[in-house]
Amino acid sequence: MYRLGVLLSGRGSNFESILNAIKSGYIKNAEIVVVLSNKADARGLEKAKESGIDAFFINPNGLQREEYDKKLVSLLKGYSVDYVILAGYMRILSDYFIESFENKILNIHPALLPSFKGLHAQRQALEAGVRFAGATVHFVTKELDSGPIIVQSVVPVFDADTEGSLSNRILKTEHKIYPLAVKLLSEDRIKLKGNRVMIEGDFLDADFFA
Ligand code: GAR
């Protein structure tokens, strides 16, 4: 059984989608053992506590990035975490953190990487005038939003879209691909080959995005 630690900064809907997938048995070989947040009022912290998961606000005030990350790493190691799941965690991780969990950190980004890295990815997509947008689950490396891609989803962009409507359309697919990526990971079906991810076996059925 893999032990997951989740980092989040807000609403926590991606965290919830993974938690629900564990509860329903879609993900069988992983459990969320701790949730950490850099925001005291993150709704995701409350959701975790409601489900009986240990959840803590770790105050970043007055701490250098690495000092803060050392606190996080020591907490996560204290919980014997195997994988770190970034679920709307809006702080850049230090090299120290990334080296502490090398190839063991997953992130979801609301764009078809390598396009539209960084903040406001959905707004960037609208401004670029693309006809398709989406989401990406990837391993975290030291370069922002650049690690090996595990799964992606694609959605259309309509002329009438606003940042809000496009974000909602993308978010719905995030709630499918993040649990899928964690399921594949927990079944040891994900292998890294350089900057590419190889997935063992079929993993998408015909109506996955229906
Ligand atoms: C999601 O759309 C996620 O892709 C995005 O923040 C949102 C969090 O929502 N993450 C990033 O932009 C990371 N660069 P949630 O708190 O409801 O999961």
TrEMBL record:
It holds the Pfam family Formyl_trans_N. (6R)-10-formyltetrahydrofolate binds at residues 65, 90-93, 107. Pathway: Purine metabolism; IMP biosynthesis via de novo pathway; N(2)-formyl-N(1)-(5-phospho-D-ribosyl)glycinamide from N(1)-(5-phospho-D-ribosyl)glycinamide (10-formyl THF route): step 1/1. N(1)-(5-phospho-beta-D-ribosyl)glycinamide binds at residues 12-14. The active site is at 109 (proton donor). The record marks 145 as: Raises pKa of active site His. GO terms for cellular component: cytoplasm. InterPro entries: Formyl_transf_N, Formyl_transf_N_sf, GART, GART_AS. One of its GO terms (molecular function) is phosphoribosylglycinamide formyltransferase activity. The keyword Transferase applies. Coiled coil: none annotated. GO terms for biological process: 'de novo' IMP biosynthetic process. Keywords: Purine biosynthesis, Transferase. Its EC number is 2.1.2.2. Residues 4-182 form the Formyl transferase N-terminal domain. It catalyses: N(1)-(5-phospho-beta-D-ribosyl)glycinamide + (6R)-10-formyltetrahydrofolate = N(2)-formyl-N(1)-(5-phospho-beta-D-ribosyl)glycinamide + (6S)-5,6,7,8-tetrahydrofolate + H(+). NCBIfam families: PurN (TIGR00639). This is Phosphoribosylglycinamide formyltransferase. It comes from Hippea maritima (strain ATCC 700847 / DSM 10411 / MH2).
